Amino acid sequence: MITTVVFDLDDTLYDEIDYCRSGFAAVARFLAKVIPTPCSDDVFARLWRHFTAGNRTTTFNATLDELGVPGDEALIAQLVEVYRNHRPDLTLPEDSRRVLERLGRSHRLALLTDGFLPAQRLKVQALGIEACFSAIVYTEELGRSAWKPSPLGFERLIRMLETAPDCMAYIGDNESKDFIAPNHLGMLTVQVLRERRLHCQSSDRAEAQARLKTARIDDIPNLLVR
Predict the structure, then answer these.
(1) Average pLDDT in the chain
(2) pTM for this one?
(3) Statement to judge: residues 67 and 116 lie in one domain
(4) What is the CATH classification number for the domain harbouring 204?
C-alpha cells in the first residue's frame, strides 16, 4: 500500500519554462542597468528568441554577441548568478494544487529536487508549497554527486520518513534520470508528461522508464489506488 508520495519539482508540479522566462526577465533588467543596451524588454525578447530556438547552453553569449557587447567570462558568470538567485515569478498550477491538497489528506508528501541552491529553494517559496511536505530533499545539499540518477537523495528521504520503499511512489517527468534510482529501490514510479515540458527525451533502458505514465497530474490519486 502506498503511504508516501514523493514529488519531483521542475516540469512535474509546474512548467519549468515559466521559471526560465522569469529568469531571463531578471537578466534582461540587470543588463539594461549595467551596460549600454536597448531597454530590458528588447533584451528579454532577444534572450527568449535564442532560448526558444533551441539554444539552451549559450543563450547569454549569443544575446551579448547580437547586442555587440563583449561576453567575457566575468560578465557571463554575473548573468548566471542573477538567473539562479532571482526571486522567480511563479504560480502553482491549479491541477497541482488540487493534487497536493487531495493526497495530503491521505498520504505523507515529500519533495526531492535537483538543481542549484538557492534557485530550488526560491522556486519552492515562490510556488508556496513548502508547507505541503513532511520532508524536502534538495540533492545539491548532499553534493553534486547526489543529483539524480544517484539514489542518495531517495535514501535520505527513506531515513527521514522512516518508511519502506515499497510504500512510496515517486512522481517525476524526466525519463533520462528521474526513475532509475526509485525503480532500483522498489518504489512505484509515475511519469507526468506535461504539455510544455522542457525535457522530452526518452530512454530505451527499462530501468529508466516509469511504471506508469500520465499526461494529467490530476490522474495521480486514482493511479495510486489502482
Answers:
(1) 95
(2) 0.94
(3) no
(4) 3.40.50.1000
Q: In percent, how much of the chain has pLDDT > 70? A: 100
Task: Tell whether 64 and 109 lie within a shared domain.
Answer: no
Whether residues 36 and 51 share a domain: the answer is: yes
| Closest among 21, 133, 159, 160 to 88, alpha carbons compared | 21
Q: Do 73 and 104 fall within a single domain?
A: no
Whether residues 59 and 96 share a domain: the answer is no
Are the CB atoms for 198 and 189 separated by under 8 Å? no
Phi-psi label, residue 169: left if phi above 0, alpha if psi -120 to 50, beta otherwise: beta
Give yes or no: residues 129 and 73 share one domain: no
pLDDT at 80 over 90: yes
Strand partners, 10: 14
CA distance 90 to 99: 18
Structural domain containing residue 78: 17-85
Count of positions (residues) in the chain = 226
**pLDDT(201) > 80:** no
Q: Which pLDDT belongs to residue 35?
A: 81
Give how many domains the chain has, as a whole number: 2
Asked if residue 221 has pLDDT above 90, the reply is yes
Around 124, how many Cα atoms within 13 Å sit in the side-chain half-sphere?
Answer: 24
